[in-house]
Amino acid sequence: MDSHFYGKLLHNRLLTAWTAARDATLESQSDAVADTTRTHDTHVTFLVGDRVCRPKPGHSNKLEYHYSGPYRVLKVLGSGTYQITDLENKMIKDEIHVSNLKPYYTKTDLEPVEMDEYLIDSLLDRRGLGKDRQYLV
Fold first, then answer.
1. 38-136 maps to which CATH number?
2. Do residues 105 and 93 touch, judged by C-beta distance below 8 A?
3. Across-strand partners of 51?
4. Which of 67, 105, 113, 128 is placed for a possible disulfide with 53 were both Cys, Cβ 3.0 to 4.6 Å?
């Protein structure tokens, strides 16, 4: 193969890959900004088991995500307060007011699940290789 042709082909492939990466990065950044700046209603109520996030304490970099989470609502305490648990460490936070909480959204929450699609909670096991791979969910 001619080295000039190969160089041009490689250049075009790299250009396509970099363009796709840039577009994906810009889309992800705009999603994060939209999620961070989305105003939340203090009249919203959460149920036990709902996923929520709360503002990070102190000042943060403007490029940083301003909320931490996800947390899960453990108990509804009344008067707009909730007890939440950290999903990572299972630490319990007492009496968080609704004004300090907002719903924690994921891509699966924003797009409806089609009739032939399922949301998987966890993969328990797998067996087989290649096209014969099977999963226990």
1. 2.30.30.140
2. no
3. 72
4. 67
